[in-house]
Write a structure and sequence with these properties.
The complex is a heterodimer.
Chain A (H helix, E strand, L loop, with lengths): L1 E3 L13 H14 L1 H22 L20 H22 L5 H6 L2 H8 L2 H34 L5 E2 L5 E2 L1 H14 L1 H18 L3 H19 L4 H6 L4 H4 L10 H27 L12 H26 L9 H22 L7 H4 L2 E6 L10 E11 L6 E10 L4 E6 L3 H5 L2 E4 L2 E4 L4 E5 L10
Antiparallel strand pairs in A: 2-3, 4-5, 5-6, 6-7, 7-10, 8-9
Helix pairs in contact in A: 1-6, 2-3, 2-6, 3-6, 3-8, 3-9, 6-8, 6-12, 8-9, 8-12, 8-13, 12-13
Chain B lengths: L2 E14 L2 E12 L3 E5 L6 H9 L6 E6 L2 E2 L10 E4 L11 H11 L9 H7 L15 H13 L5 E5 L7 H16 L3 E5 L3 H7 L2 E6 L2 E6 L1 H7 L3 E7 L2 H10 L4 E2 L11 E6 L1 H13 L4 E6 L3 H9 L18 H10 L1
Parallel strand pairs in B: 3-8, 3-9, 6-7, 7-8
Antiparallel strand pairs in B: 1-2, 1-4, 4-5, 9-10, 11-13, 11-14, 12-13
Classes of the chains: A alpha+beta, B alpha/beta.
């Protein structure tokens, strides 16, 4: 006769709690050389870069806020933010979230982990939280390092916004902080897509590179003359929409839409990754992983979300086409010019004059008047007019504009030389950069103002 | 008298799509027994071990582990440890860190979990602070065993634990497993190494295409089995050949090649006939220095029962494991 071992002290082994699983995943992530290297690089390199570039005579003026790096330490973190949205954040989400599941496939440790934790759901949650923590640490590194580097190298000075308005240091610091917080949303979306790729494609390199590829595709898409609704429906739009924080009033609409879209993508991709992971059979030796289901479960819902978002935004947002219209360009150029004119006036130690009294306006056309004045292009030309108190004549200045499809523009002064035709102005204390020579601006794509 | 069983499986069937991995398997593993699973690749060994670890649940049949019925995946009872498909180790961590992380994961305290003790048990103390990235397969196997030992298991499930082990490492691991079994822990292990299974296991189960084709003590295989070839080394080869030729049921196998040397005789016989030959040699004053199966009973049974005439299971160090007969003969000769 046989009996099984008495079950007096035998209980079904308890599942490992999420906090313990989270700690385990963190230990594994932090022990990886490339993660340590990334942390080190993201916490040190931006500060050194900003400090070094800010002290050079040649500034990265083709990058948003780059031309102000010599003037204030708060321009540096914004330059880094622009770069981060393009390269650094997709790369870090690829390396961290894109590999967090695939690494177990590569090491052959799934069964070991399942036996230890006893809950695929908790494994998923722990891995997602651990990768999120590391990503947040890296984003914080980029932000803090570049801000500290900028402020230490240049100082805590006012920052010129995208409408030419001077932002007090505390205001600038707050907006810089807010801008970094806002890009967490698209970063989360990329991270969730990384998780999805990692789960769906297993040890395939495509799983690792998915966020980077997607970010690249979104960048290319943002450069195309797409309708505003399509542009806003892309999960990476908030990487651009933070520009709206540096105008007055802030362009909150596109930013909020961008953040909401990013968060919806983050939630959808995370749920899909979780479903794929929970359905995976880790014991089946003939299973080829969930790769075959990736097309249906991993690809179709995001494609459906994109179509749905585009449809909703097409109906909901007031702008059609590119969103770049003549009246908006004229308004943006005139506003920025007025603010910067005051700045130049102060530099030259002339009597101050308010924007209201300047009554600056701009008349812009495109393609020398041969094409409809709307949409992106480098063939915009604006003539800015303004009035000075007690002066009969109206001042005029010419600008050549390069307007990109995301609404950003660079205005390049074309004379007269005393106003905007030369990159230096002679001030009582010596030569200084001329704020009216070249400046950056932003056209709000969703503006509800009537066509003028 | 009751026998306590750590594992009791009845009619276990497990399919993966159209593939039947296990087909009505029965398995009993008494407490404190080392039980071997052997079978060709794809026989279902790893699937069965996965069920014991709780990685999956059977499609049909009943499974009790440590007295607890297991009816769903990842619901194996406390006290079950081990690994399938190699030990799960993280190469960026040292051996000590791997064990500490596991210990904390399971809710223990890395300082009091007995990490040093288990590292010492498996002979990895000297390399405990090296990253496992540089570990050999044998060292990884031993660390996997250490990770299982950390939980103080009552049922240890090991998939090919001797893979990559050198003779010293294998002896070390055997010592650990025997010690565990003596302490009441049941061990279920799979291996392609017949010498390991014969040295360690009090019972073996041979699987073929998902079915049990033999289950019992390895010694029973010799009794049940057909004739085996034995290598016979004596003090007088010519006399031994004459005695063998005169013994009923003994056939001298000629043409075995030069690898055994001229003084070695290969005879084919059942165990009773072999016993008779040994008695006759003693009476004839011929010393028996070695009497070893050319292929072990387990290996021969494996080949016969799994119908793999062309394949040779791994077998090494035969000379280290003389048969009962040769040992007794040496003692008699003294």
């Amino acid at each position: 006769m046989t009996t099984t071992v008495a079950a007096d002290h035998t209980t079904v082994a308890r599942r490992v709690s999420v906090p313990r699983g989270y700690r385990f995943e963190l230990v594994k992530l932090v022990s990886q050389g490339r993660i340590r290297l990334l942390v080190l690089a993201y916490w040190i390199a931006p500060g050194l870069f900003v400090a070094a570039v800010s002290r050079q005579s040649t500034l990265p003026s083709d990058t948003l806020f780059g031309r102000w790096m010599h003037a204030t330490g708060w321009a540096g973190p914004l330059v880094i933010l622009g770069f981060a949205g393009t390269w650094a954040l997709p790369l870090l989400t690829s390396v961290v979230a894109g590999d967090v599941f695939a690494s177990e496939d590569r090491l052959g440790t799934w069964r070991h982990l399942l036996v230890a934790v006893r809950s695929p759901r908790r494994i998923f949650v722990a891995k997602a939280l651990a990768s999120l923590s590391v990503i947040l640490l890296l984003v914080a590194g980029l932000a803090c390092s570049s801000a500290v580097g900028g402020v230490l190298a240049v100082g805590d000075h006012p920052l010129v916004g995208l409408d030419g308005r001077l932002l007090a240091p505390s205001d600038a610091a707050g907006r810089v902080f807010l801008a970094w917080v806002c890009v967490l949303a698209p970063t989360l979306a990329l991270a969730a897509i990384g998780l999805l790729g990692s789960v769906a494609l297993g040890r395939s390199p495509m799983g690792l590179l998915l966020p980077a590829f997607l970010a690249l595709a979104m960048q290319v898409a943002q450069m195309l003359p797409l309708p505003v609704a399509v542009r806003l429906a892309l999960p990476g739009y908030a990487f651009i929409a933070w520009h709206g924080l540096f105008t007055s009033p802030a362009q909150v609409g596109p930013l909020v839409i961008g953040i909401v879209v990013s968060l919806v993508w983050a939630v959808l991709a995370t749920v899909l990754a979780c479903l794929l992971f929970l359905r995976r059979d880790f014991t089946n030796p003939t299973a080829d992983g969930p790769a075959r289901r990736a097309l249906t479960t991993g690809l179709l819902p995001p494609a459906g979300l994109l179509v749905l978002t585009v449809t909703v935004l097409t109906v909901a947002v007031p702008s059609v086409g590119s969103g770049i219209r003549q009246d908006k360009v004229q308004r943006s150029v005139a506003t920025a010019f007025a603010h910067l004119y005051r700045l130049q006036t102060r530099q030259l130690d002339r009597p101050d004059v308010t924007e209201a009294r300047l009554r600056a306006s701009a008349a812009c056309d495109k393609g020398a008047g041969q094409v409809t004045p709307e949409g992106p292009g480098n063939d915009w030309r604006c003539v800015v007019s303004w009035h000075l108190p007690d002066v009969e004549a109206t001042g005029t200045a010419v600008y050549q504009l390069d307007v990109t499809s995301d609404g950003r523009f660079v205005a390049d002064g074309d004379g007269p030389k005393e106003v905007n035709g030369y990159f230096l102005v002679r001030t009582p204390v010596g030569d200084a950069p001329n704020p009216l020579w070249q400046f950056d601006g932003d056209v709000e794509l969703l503006s509800t103002a009537p066509k003028g | 008298m009751d026998t306590l069983h750590s594992v009791r499986a009845r009619g276990i069937t497990k399919c993966f799509g159209d593939v039947v991995a296990l087909d009505g398997i029965d398995l009993d593993v008494p407490q404190g027994q080392i039980h071997g699973l052997v079978g060709p690749n794809g026989a279902g060994k790893t699937t069965l071990l996965g069920l014991l670890l709780g990685l999956a649940v059977a499609d049909s049949g009943s499974l009790e582990i440590l007295g607890t019925p297991v009816r769903r995946a990842l619901a194996a009872p406390d006290g079950v440890a081990g690994f399938v498909d190699g030990p799960g180790l993280y190469p960026s961590l040292t051996a000590r860190q791997n064990l500490a992380a596991l210990s904390v994961l399971r809710g223990g305290d890395a300082r009091t979990a007995g990490i040093d003790e288990v590292l010492d048990q498996v002979g990895l103390t000297d390399v405990a602070d090296d990253r496992t990235r540089g570990y050999s397969l044998g060292m990884r196997q031993r660390l996997g065993l250490a990770a299982a030992l950390l939980t103080k298991p009552r049922l240890l499930v090991l998939d090919e634990p001797s893979n990559g082990l050198d003779p010293a490492g294998r002896r070390h691991v055997h010592g650990v497993l025997n010690q565990l079994a003596a302490g009441g822990t049941s061990v279920v292990l799979s291996s392609h190494r017949m010498d390991d299974l014969e040295a360690l296991c009090s019972e073996v189960t041979i699987l073929a295409t998902g079915r049990v084709v033999f289950s019992g003590p390895p010694g029973k295989l010799a009794a049940e089995n057909r004739e085996l070839d034995y290598r016979l080394l004596t003090s007088d080869a010519r006399a031994a050949r004459e005695e063998a030729a005169d013994t009923a049921g003994i056939r001298v196998v000629d043409g075995v090649g030069p690898r055994y040397g001229a003084e070695v005789l290969v005879v084919r016989a059942l165990v009773p006939a072999l016993d008779e030959l040994v008695v006759r040699l003693v009476h004839a004053g011929v010393a028996v220095r070695e009497l070893t199966p050319v292929v072990s009973p387990l290996a021969a049974a494996f080949l016969a029962l799994t119908e793999q005439p062309g394949e040779q299971p791994e077998q090494s160090e035969q000379s280290e494991q003389p048969t009962r007969q040769s040992t007794e003969q040496e003692e008699d000769g003294r």
